[in-house]
């Protein structure tokens, strides 16, 4: 039976992750205000988020190694402290360098949070609970995005830039206090890992994690289905909906709320699917990627502005990509031993954020090029420029899906050598129908 202490540890962990998501996504709400405050172009505004994500992605593997060495408590508390300092810097920044420094600190602190929280789950909970709890962790953390869309945006528009970012800094300080007071790395009586290891041993751990095809399958799964929602929520969704689609701020807030609600609803369903059909995880990832491409194609190819129902459908599909990307961490968990889980999770987490920063930067560059050449007719964030700029996502979706297919073959060959054969999908579906029919007859 799971102890009450384990649930408390989990609650503190997801609060820290909620704060991290709030800090991460807050800049997606202030894109227009930041353009005016820093007198910045579209590419410069995208650079804020690109650099933040670059720092995040670059630190994932080092953080994975460090969390395996020092534990989750130290890493989560240190990450919250860095995010608080970053938001404090942003609160008073009036130039691009000052704002960039703030986002770098936020990115560094954010990088230390999620995989540290995920690492706690197999330590405190039974293996059968971990897939669902992984989804619930990601789902709960997404409430932080809801905070950035609603309360933070309200504070920004009513009280101004500085009070809004000081509020975010205060949230980070609260997370530091709760983690230091309540969170523990291991249950009482369970031996802690060695506090340090040599550089060679660290390199061996990293090499073994990377050479495991299941780790790379997790990385490409995360790469393919996570980035489009991140691009939408962190940077370009708000300007696209306001300036290109002509929606008012209230409607955009409602769509962003729908995004979070859809991710929350999809999380438990995804967790149950992974637990019941572990041999069909990559198929689910590919279906989500196909759905993402179809939803963007419908919005970008439609003449004129899209109806609200179609934009809502796009938001729902993008939101599903968040829980879908958690499948990547389940690959890391099932194909790696516990002592290198943090390292493997760090490798997986690099994928989606590299794809995100590439997409965010390219979209900003394309928008600026179209504006400079006169194609956008003076509208930097007009509908036609956004149609072209947002289409760069199709390249990343296609490349990621291809990498999944290649890596999946290697994983299945490895599984076959171990005596585990993945049946064709039609055979699996027929078997599932027979099982369901038998259960109905028994009832």
Overview of this protein structure:
- The chain is mainly α and 443 residues long.
- The chain has one domain: Up-down Bundle (Growth Hormone, Chain: A), CATH 1.20.1250.20.
- 81% of the residues lie in helices and 0% in strands.
- The chain is built from 20 helices and no strands.
- Helix 3 (42-70) runs parallel beside helix 5 (96-111).
What is the CATH superfamily label?
MFS general substrate transporter like domains
Distance between the termini: 30 Å
Number of structurally distinct domains = 1
Biggest sheet architecture: none
Structural class: mainly alpha
CATH-defined topology: Growth Hormone, Chain: A
Shape: globular
- What's the architecture in CATH terms? Up-down Bundle
Number of DSSP strand runs:
0
Order of helices and strands: HHHHHHHHHHHHHHHHHHHH
Helix content estimate: over 70%
Q: Please write the CATH class name.
A: Mainly Alpha
Low-pLDDT segments, ≥5 res: none
Continuous helix count:
20
Radius of gyration: 22 Å
Beta-strand percentage range: under 5%
- The average pLDDT value, as a whole number, equals 84
Topology:
Layout: H1 4-25, H2 31-37, H3 42-70, H4 72-92, H5 96-111, H6 114-124, H7 130-141, H8 143-149, H9 151-159, H10 161-182, H11 199-211, H12 213-244, H13 249-276, H14 281-301, H15 308-325, H16 327-335, H17 341-372, H18 383-390, H19 392-417, H20 425-442
Helix pairs in contact: 1-4, 1-5, 1-6, 1-7, 1-8, 1-10, 3-4, 3-5, 3-17, 4-5, 4-6, 4-10, 6-7, 6-17, 7-13, 8-9, 8-13, 9-10, 11-17, 12-14, 12-15, 12-16, 12-17, 12-19, 13-15, 14-15, 14-19, 16-17, 17-18
């Amino acid at each position: 039976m799971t102890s009450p202490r384990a649930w408390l540890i989990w609650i503190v962990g997801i609060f820290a992750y909620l704060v991290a998501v709030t800090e991460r996504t807050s800049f997606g709400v202030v894109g227009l205000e930041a353009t005016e405050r820093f007198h910045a172009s579209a590419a410069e505004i995208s650079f804020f988020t690109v650099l933040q994500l670059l720092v995040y992605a670059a630190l994932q593997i080092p953080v994975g190694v460090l969390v395996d060495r020092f534990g989750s408590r130290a890493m989560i508390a240190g990450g919250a402290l860095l995010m608080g300092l970053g938001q404090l810097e942003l609160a008073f920044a009036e130039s691009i360098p000052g704002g960039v420094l703030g986002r770098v600190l936020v990115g560094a602190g954010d990088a230390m949070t999620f995989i540290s929280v995920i690492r706690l789950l197999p330590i405190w909970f039974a293996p059968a609970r971990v897939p669902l709890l992984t989804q619930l962790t990601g789902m709960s953390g997404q409430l932080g995005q809801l905070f950035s869309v609603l309360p933070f945006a309200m504070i920004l528009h009513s009280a101004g830039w500085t009070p809004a970012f000081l509020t975010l800094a205060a949230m980070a300080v609260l997370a530091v206090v709760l983690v230091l007071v309540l969170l523990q790395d291991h249950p009482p009586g369970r031996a802690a890992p060695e506090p340090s290891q040599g550089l060679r041993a660290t390199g061996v751990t990293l090499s073994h994690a990377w050479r495991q095809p299941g780790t790379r399958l997790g990385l490409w799964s995360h790469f393919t289905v996570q980035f489009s929602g991140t691009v939408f929520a962190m940077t370009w969704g708000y300007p696209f909906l306001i300036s290109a689609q002509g929606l008012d701020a209230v409607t955009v807030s409602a769509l962003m709320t729908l995004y979070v609600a859809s991710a929350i609803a999809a999380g438990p369903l995804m967790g149950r699917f992974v637990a019941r059909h572990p041999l069909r995880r990559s198929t689910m990832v590919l279906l989500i990627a196909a759905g993402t491409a179809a939803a963007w194609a419908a919005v970008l190819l439609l003449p004129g502005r899209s109806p609200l129902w179609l934009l809502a459908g796009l938001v729902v599909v993008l939101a599903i990509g968040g829980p879908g990307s958690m499948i990547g961490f389940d690959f890391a968990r099932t194909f790696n031993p516990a002592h290198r889980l943090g390292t493997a999770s760090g490798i997986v987490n690099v994928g989606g954020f590299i794809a995100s920063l590439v997409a965010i930067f390219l979209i900003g560059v394309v928008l600026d090029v179209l504006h400079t050449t006169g194609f956008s007719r003076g509208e930097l964030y007009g509908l036609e420029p956004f149609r072209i700029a947002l289409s760069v996502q199709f390249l990343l979706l296609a490349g990621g899906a291809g990498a999944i297919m290649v890596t999946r073959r290697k994983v299945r060959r490895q599984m076959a050598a171990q005596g585990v054969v993945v049946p064709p999908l039609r055979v699996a579906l027929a078997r599932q129908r027979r099982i369901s029919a038998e259960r109905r007859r028994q009832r």
